[in-house]
Amino acid sequence: MNLPQFVRWATGMRWQWKVFIPIVSVLALSILAIRAILRSPENWDVKWILISAVFFAILLCFVLLTVLLVLVERPLEELMRTIERVRRGDLTARVTFAKREDDIGHLGHEFNQMIEQLNQNREEIQELHLREMARAEHLASIGELAAGLAHEIRNPLAGIAGVVDIMGKELPANSPTRGVIGEVHREILRIQAILNDLLSYARPRPPDIHPADINATVEQAASIARQQVLTKPIQVLVDPRPSLPLVEHDPALIQQVILNLVLNGIQAISGTGQVRLALHDDSGFVVVQVSDTGRGISADALPRIFKPFFTTRKEGTGLGLSLASSIVQAHGGRIEVTSAPGKGTHFNVWLPVHQSKPGRPKSASR
């Protein structure tokens, strides 16, 4: 056995052996000393004094060993049993030696305090969980009610839109009311868009996930977005990555996500600018990057952009990013965002290549 192996073996020994070996060594040396004393031609009085001293040392070793076994071994065994109870979920377990006025007692006291804190934390977590479950049930009920109302409102609204169109056509060409009719029609379309987003958010369809070309999905979203900027000095650019593997996703839903991010970027640009889409792979994930040169998002608003009905635009419904986040999470992915006022916004959409792979933490981060 070489020196490093011996060191590992020695440090891995139980503490009882580490205590017992020096004591045995002292006993062995004491026996050798007694034999040497008895064989030496010295005065017997001196010999008896030396023998008594050696026996006293032996007795002291036995006393020390007994004290160590009683004061250290038993508390350690109790501590191990208590740890095992805690591991099985019994947070009422406590050690009984915590009242001792020594280091072992201090250890027991700190251990009991730690278990007490764990017990309190568990009770608080359970209380928060019950509270959140009740809140989730309440919100689910409200969501069902809102979805039902949206569905009931949408049909009469379509009839109102038809009537408004007819009224607009019957008005004289020079009638000043035509401008009002046009404004009413635009507001009706806006209400319809809000209702459609609300229904999509409240009752999302399950994704039809299958292997598909993510480059084609991104390019289709960019192509639709380009139709929105035909008369604007804004470019929608795509940096394709043909080498990427097929990604298991729902092309229609992911196209909806990418299109929403691109349109948000377009609306954030005043004047000349661009929205760039890029793709790359990263440890079993494909990342779709959507970057714009718009006005950016303030630090106060950034943590709330994925919350339902939160929007920084007057004409926005506040459901687009929330719906996009839900779709990506249903794919086992996540959306990350970084932004600063005046420096544009950068979204990263993480999608697992294969759905069997675990997704990353599903939360947006700066």
Task: Give a verbal description of the structure.
The chain has 366 residues and is of the alpha+beta class. Among the domains are: 88 residues; 143 residues, Histidine kinase-like ATPase, C-terminal domain (Heat Shock Protein 90). It is 58% helix and 12% strand. It has eight helices and seven strands; from the N terminus they run αααααβαββαββαββ. A five-stranded mixed β-sheet has the order 2-4-5-7-6, with helices on one face. A two-stranded antiparallel sheet has the order 1-3. Strand 6 and strand 7 form a beta hairpin. Helix 6 crosses helix 7. The two termini are 55 Å apart. The C terminus is likely disordered.
Please state roughly what percent of the residues sit in beta strands, choosing from under 5%, 5-15%, 15-25%, 25-35%, 35-45% or over 45%: 5-15%
Q: What is the strand tally?
A: 7
CATH fold-level topology of the domain at 210-352: Heat Shock Protein 90
Tell me, briefly, the overall form.
Answer: elongated
Helix content: 55-70%
* CATH-assigned homologous superfamily of the domain at 210-352: Histidine kinase-like ATPase, C-terminal domain
Q: What's the tally of helices?
A: 8
Mean pLDDT: 79
- Please name the CATH architecture of the domain at 210-352: 2-Layer Sandwich
Low-confidence stretches: 357-366
- Gap between N and C termini: 55 Å
Q: Structural class, please? A: alpha+beta
What is the H-and-E element order? HHHHHEHEEHEEHEE
Largest beta sheet, briefly?
5 strands, mixed
CATH top level class name of the domain at 210-352: Alpha Beta
Radius of gyration: 38 Å
Strand order of the largest sheet: 2-4-5-7-6
